[in-house]
């Protein structure tokens, strides 16, 4: 089974910051002639309406892991994003990403014909993604040495909780995690199990030197089971809820999970 190597890209803080200001409190103004006549009941004041709260979908954690579909391409990330995005679909942009001919053509009639052929397929892929929002990503992971105080291993994948992951085929769309901070450390309290993980981890880099990683005796892989929760407003980032992670050896054996 081909292993997809995770690529993490840190978010730009400036892209996340938005200005926030409070509206000044409304001042009472008395207008001439607006005072109700004696004995006339004052008009009822309409109660302010509560602001609508957007409910973000949550994962069903009872769903069998075997039903999670593989997420190993930017194309899949893109359609997963579009399936939860609330904004209108930019078919021209999507067509240019899935069809090199559409992207390179200068003939508007040809592009019109190509769009007619591509649009049903795009809609079908979005509908498919909307029907199953559960995915599994897998790739090589760096694991730090066992911490005896917390009885855990730090996972390099989630060391930066704001990190995003993308694939080389379509890098325009990436995956961010809503609850990455909960999975930064893989808890392994059983000493015998922790020893097994540490023994493999110690050989993932010769002498502990990352530059010699190509000559490592073993590699560790992380399977991330996630749920496509929402699309980040104004950015092509799919926000996913992590449901479970599994640390595996090269043969696919689960060494630890949470």
Automatic annotation (TrEMBL):
Superkingdom of the source species: Bacteria
Protein name from the UniProt record: Lipoprotein
Organism annotation: Niveispirillum lacus
Lineage, opening ranks: Bacteria, Pseudomonadati, Pseudomonadota, Alphaproteobacteria, Rhodospirillales
